[in-house]
Amino acid sequence: METLNPKLLLLLVLCSGVATSVFAEETRxxxxxxxxxxxxxxxxxxxxxxxxxxxxxxxxxxxxxxxIADSEDDLERIKVLMEHRDNEVMVETKYLKRDWGKGYSxxxxxxxxxxxxxxxxxxxxxxxxxxxxxxxxxxxxAxxxxxxIDASGISxxxxxxxxxxxxxxxFADLEQVEKVKIDTVNxxxxxxxxxxxxxxxxxxxxxxxxxxxxxxxxxKNLFTGKQxxxxxxxxxxxxxxxxVNxxxxxLSN
Length: 253
Known about the structure:
Elements: H1 6-22, E1 26-35, E2 40-48, E3 51-55, E4 60-69, H2 72-76, E5 78-85, E6 88-95, E7 108-115, E8 119-128, E9 131-134, E10 139-146, E11 149-154, E12 158-164, E13 167-171, E14 179-186, E15 189-193, E16 199-207, E17 210-212, E18 218-221, E19 225-232, E20 237-245, E21 248-252
Parallel strand pairs: 2-6, 2-8, 3-7, 3-9, 8-10, 9-11, 10-12, 11-13, 12-14, 13-15, 14-20, 15-21, 16-20, 17-21
Antiparallel strand pairs: 1-4, 4-7, 5-6, 16-19, 18-19
């Protein structure tokens, strides 16, 4: 059995160490909680990184921000701004410029947010990153550029938009939901509703299919793609779905 040349073995070890140092990431975690009253509002703006929003067990808004960058210097240039004003909590990610001619810093911020039941309105704006929402009460307004949206257990009026990414929304209960508006440019739309949903549907896609579990008719137009309009039950919840390049599915839970 042949053995490795000692010099070659040393070179491999050194190269391994260099590779590890080159690809090493710097991280920092920031945690903060805010006490809010009934009817509170929450908003978050993030440029690079995912956002996960869930239900808090107590009566405080909990924010956990994980900063990730290629170097300590770049990490220092990522700023997480949190402001509590009146009954509103606002979170925003800022990137400071490097020295002249060196462009912007690397890095991203991943957020984990837990909202109590007394938050009545949530607004989320993301540029590059996915959004996951689960068991949130009240109104939600999400606007993404590059990233998918996966929302489950939502029970309030919702507006979900993504330019490049799919949107999936699961509603366990529509009693408090007046309107749902979901639109994408490049991405599919899936909406899961209770079997006894009372909905008024207007769904359109330019390039894609439309499917429904609620017996609604799909019309195909020569120049405007496909459209599905109809009322199920009392039609108390208005459901508006639009996609340019993507399929639309309205399914029962």
